[in-house]
Specification:
Elements (H helix, E strand, L loop, with lengths): L5 H9 L7 E5 L12 E2 L9 E2 L3 E4 L9 E9 L13 E5 L11 E4 L3 E5 L2 E4 L9 E2 L10 E3 L7 H9 L4 E5 L3 E7 L3 E2 L10 E2 L2 H11 L3 E8 L3 H13 L4 E5 L10 H7 L3 E5 L3 E2 L5 E5 L2 E6 L3 H20 L7 E6 L10 E11 L2 E6 L8 H6 L2 E5 L11 E6 L2
Parallel strand pairs: 5-6, 13-16, 13-17, 14-15, 17-21, 19-23, 22-24
Antiparallel strand pairs: 1-12, 2-11, 3-10, 4-6, 4-7, 5-9, 8-9, 18-20, 20-21, 22-26, 23-24, 23-25, 25-26
Length: about 400
């Protein structure tokens, strides 16, 4: 079977993906979610003409010529309006956010007023009609659409929804991602490995990556290389209505790589198996009943690199988000050899240099080495058949953080 190009693999993964069904959540649980319905204002903001400054509510004609003395007849504060009317030669002490009383048409700021006697002020600067007044509806009117479908609910959007009178919002559902790590050799962190065992690490990185992109996680633990136990884990994921099942390991061609075999026996509708990339060739994707299945390689670096390329865009599509990989132009800090028929994702450090971004590849690229992936902030993309490159030549990098 020919290896599938990376771009075509991503197209197949995203084919037919629609955002999940909407759900209503309280406003304080909506941060980072995607709106599934427009938000219409249930009130007018501000609901009245309000002062934008501390000072005095006056009539502009009374302070057209200065100095001008005015009688202070009351006070208007936020939450406690003045109930009377401002007449000729009168003023009302007013504070920011307070309703402007009837009769007043401008605000004399307190810096331009001088107290001359108890209940008497003198305006020392003229002020035009309408100054320092926030008109009713300046922000929005009752019934106006203030947020559109597809908006990511960042802090300003959440504040706007709250101001518009909404205690809860309709948002796109969060994908449930079930994670199944497989392998007789794996033990949990904190357990002393046997002579032929290693500490499992993949599921933690994959769960963190999926979680930071807005997915809920169902971690089904470590499953031995046993057909019945793998089938049981898959059944538990399906019973939980997982939108996406991510398996870790067991999808290559070895005698103990049983995940693909079990998936096929359970009725997997295979979209592809194996792609033309390094690291991460033994990738599998398909549909199993109502869930999508993404089988990632067992090597931790391969698993995480593939998750960046395929898992993140899929979670974004299910969540109603757009997704664009952070691809940037750079120049090589070291020579690189010619590439074979697979697209290569080379761990590197990308840093600003005199002429822009400079990418330094790590010398050792073994797909089991998490230390280099933890140190890397970028992957250098090497296309299939790329010629050898010298230091200083242009390249493209995928930023990881």
């Amino acid at each position: 079977m020919a290896l599938l190009p990376v771009d075509e693999a991503l197209e197949r993964i995203l084919e037919g993906v629609e955002p999940l069904a909407a759900e209503k959540v309280p406003l304080n649980s909506a941060a980072g979610r995607i709106l599934a319905a427009p938000v219409e204002a249930r009130c007018t903001q501000p609901p009245f003409d309000a002062s934008a400054m501390d000072g005095y509510a006056v009539r502009a004609t009374d302070v057209a010529t200065v100095p001008a003395q005015l009688t202070v007849i009351g006070e208007s504060a936020a939450g406690r309006r003045f109930s009377g009317t401002v007449g000729h030669g009168e003023a009302v002490r007013i504070f920011t956010g307070a309703p402007v009383p009837p009769g007043a048409d401008t605000i004399l700021i307190q810096e331009n007023a001088r107290l001359v006697a108890e209940g008497r002020i003198e305006a020392v600067e003229t002020v035009a009609e309408g100054c320092h007044i926030r008109r009713a509806g300046l922000d929005f009117f009752d019934g106006a659409t203030v947020l559109d479908v597809g908006r990511s609910l960042d802090p300003p959007a959440l504040s706007l929804a709250a101001a518009a009178g909404h205690p809860e919002l309709a948002v796109v559902g969060r994908p449930l991602v079930a994670i199944i790590a497989t392998g007789d050799e794996l033990v949990p962190p904190g357990t002393t490995p046997g002579p032929d065992q290693i500490v499992a690490s993949n599921s933690f990185g994959i769960a963190a990556l999926a979680g930071q992109d807005g997915a809920d996680i169902l971690n089904l633990g470590i499953v031995p290389d046993d057909r019945a136990m793998i089938a049981d884990a898959l059944s538990r994921a399906l019973s939980a209505d997982a939108d996406l099942i991510v398996t870790l390991g067991g999808v290559s061609v070895g005698a103990h790589d049983l995940v693909r075999e079990v998936l096929t026996a359970q009725g997997l509708e295979l979209a592809f198996w194996r792609i033309a990339m390094r690291p991460g060739k033994p990738l599998i994707f398909g549909r199993l009943q109502g869930s999508r299945v993404l089988g990632l390689p067992g090597n931790p670096v391969s698993s995480l690199v593939c998750a960046h390329l395929f898992l993140r865009p899929l979670i974004a599509a299910l969540s109603g988000r757009s997704f664009a990989p952070d691809l940037r132009a750079a120049e090589l800090a070291a020579p690189m050899k010619a590439n074979d028929e697979r697209r290569d994702y080379v761990r590197a450090r990308a840093e600003n240099g005199p002429r822009g971004l400079v990418a330094t590849p790590f010398t050792v690229q073994d797909s089991s080495m998490l230390t280099t992936l933890a140190d890397a902030n970028a992957l250098i993309l090497r296309e299939p058949g790329a010629c050898a490159s010298e230091a200083g030549e242009p390249c493209q990098v995928l930023m990881l953080r």
